[in-house]
Design a protein that fits this description.
Length: about 160
Amino acid sequence: MLAAAGTWLAATGTTPAGPALTGVRSGAELDALEARVSHAPNDHTALVQLTDEYLSQGAPGLAAASLERAPEPVKERAVVADAHARALTELGNATVALDAQKKALRACAEQGCSRSIVARGERRLRVLSEMVRLGVQDHLLEPNRALIAYRIAVREVALEHSSQ
């Protein structure tokens, strides 16, 4: 097996992809959430919690994959659509994430979401829109341009009160 891996390394010049969470302790909480989603695929709350855990551990691919495997009625839930937009944003494709964020905000308008989800979604929408406008797809590959997009998107304008 080691000889095969060595031959592959010599031939390709790259290392084989390891598990998504290599070096990260998955822990009982993640295991429990994965089991909960596996046994109850319609439990949108557990799915969003699993997504949050994957994202906190730096595994947006696992988060997006778990969301994409969810049953259609679950995917249509506003909080699940918002979680999907967050995962896609972390994956580094601003155009796809922007479309997902628009879909999530439409779902929030129809189904109702907490003010915090809507506010974070609207902010993410502004940042993603600005990234796409500036031609930035992946914030990790172009951190300086992504930061410029972020600063433009979140800038505030204050009007000075004049006393006349």
